[in-house]
Specification:
Elements (H helix, E strand, L loop, with lengths): L8 E4 L3 H10 L4 E4 L1 H16 L4
Parallel strand pairs: 1-2
Length: about 55
């Protein structure tokens, strides 16, 4: 396989099976979490903290 054809960075969601497969198949690639999923997670966590229950 041509080394230049291998991905250097892979952007995924937090699916554990996919992240494990990337670690095995592309051991030198960096696996990043996409911005959409980061924002979605931050919003969900902050909503619990700042939820107005009055």
């Amino acid at each position: 396989m041509n080394v230049d054809a291998l991905p250097v960075v892979i952007v995924t969601d937090r699916e554990l099976a996919l992240r494990n497969a990337i670690r095995i198949v592309f051991p030198h690639a960096t696996n990043l979490l996409c911005r959409f999923h980061i924002s979605k997670n931050v919003l969900a966590k902050c909503r619990k903290i700042f939820d107005d229950k009055t």
